[in-house]
Amino acid sequence: MELIKQIKEAEEQARKILEEAKADSAKIIEESRVQQAERLAGAEEKRKEAIARAVQQAAEQGQQEVEALQAAAAEQKKKLQAKAATKMEACVEKVVNYIISS
Questions:
Q1: Residue 40 within any structural domain of the chain
Q2: Distance of CA 90 to the CA centre of its chain
Q3: Per-residue confidence at 3, pLDDT binned at 50, 70, 90?
Q4: Cα–Cα distance between 4 and 36 in angstroms, integer?
Q5: How far apart, in whole angstroms, are the C-alpha atoms of residue 97 and residue 89?
Q6: Residue 90 forms part of a structural domain
Q7: Which residues of 8-45 are buried (b: 16+ CB within 10 A; e: fewer)?
Q8: Torsion angle, alpha carbons of 6, 9, 10, 16, to 10
Q9: How far apart are the first and last CA of the chain?
Q10: In this structure, is residue 84 part of a structural domain?
Q11: What is the mean pLDDT of residues 11-16?
Q12: What total number of domains does the chain contain?
């Protein structure tokens, strides 16, 4: 009788241990899921920040390029205007001289 009682107690203890192990593993799995979700959210936030920084840098670089191109275009325009002005003076002088000599 005593042996049967010990066997039943051992079975009951084994059942409790098994239930505790199941509960512990479920708890560990849930904690792991929560940690994974937190890491994923953190990674997503870092990705968004990196994209925002890249967009900002690209915008700044683009603005610098625009300003450089505008300055180069203005300089080129001034050179062309100066060249055209000297040629125009020479042409006007030729026309005036032609008219006077005619």
A1: yes
A2: 57
A3: confident
A4: 47
A5: 12
A6: no
A7: eeeeeeeeeeeeeeeeeeeeeeeeeeeeeeeeeeeeee
A8: -170
A9: 147
A10: no
A11: 93
A12: 1
In this predicted structure, what is the pLDDT of residue 5?
84
Q: Which domain holds residue 1?
A: 1-75
DSSP track, 2-32: HHHHHHHHHHHHHHHHHHHHHHHHHHHHHHH
Query: What type of residue is 95?
Result: V
pTM beyond 0.70, yes or no:
no
**Phi, psi for 62 (deg, rounded to 5):** -60, -40
Token digits of residue 65: 């390029």
If residue 91 lies in a helix (H) or strand (E), which one and from where to where? helix 2-101
40-46-47-48 Cα dihedral, nearest 10 degrees? 110
Give the length of the chain. 102
